[in-house]
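Now for a chain:

_____
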Amino acid sequence: MHNICENIQWFVIEDVSELNYPRSYLLMDHYQRDTFLNEFRRTMVTSFLSYLNDHENFDSLFSDTDAVVPIDLIYNCIQKVEHHIKVKQHLCIDIEKESNTNAAFNEIAKQIDLVIHYRRKIRYPEYMNGNTMEKLRTNIKIAVAEVHFHWPESKYDGHRNIWILKPINKSRGYG
């Protein structure tokens, strides 16, 4: 299946997009597994920022009383997008290594899931005012635009991505 995907023309923009087939990874290869994890994590945070950016009533996502998700989630996602862009541009030599621990990622994934799937509110602290909220929205728009510039195929990812992990050499029509 992986080999077939590699040979299919899918989405190409000359000199812009590096993706010419549906993303497919052989997870038994350590390099490809790390590439998959980075891609999965990048896609999760960029999809979340796109979700916020595309939401018709942005302010309704926030509350100062009954919110469970900290607003730091948004800042962390923007920071992770900026890091991925620096890596893409090979500007990552002088920056600190991003914290990619499973525990940190799992916490971000859990919070994103609460907002997107369970419609939990993001905590809007009392010390923030309207200007800061507008600046936050602008930062989200900038981050999403930069992601679409560097990864044009991300426009097609959507907000509720599905990833299929298929074991190698299993279910080949036997049994």
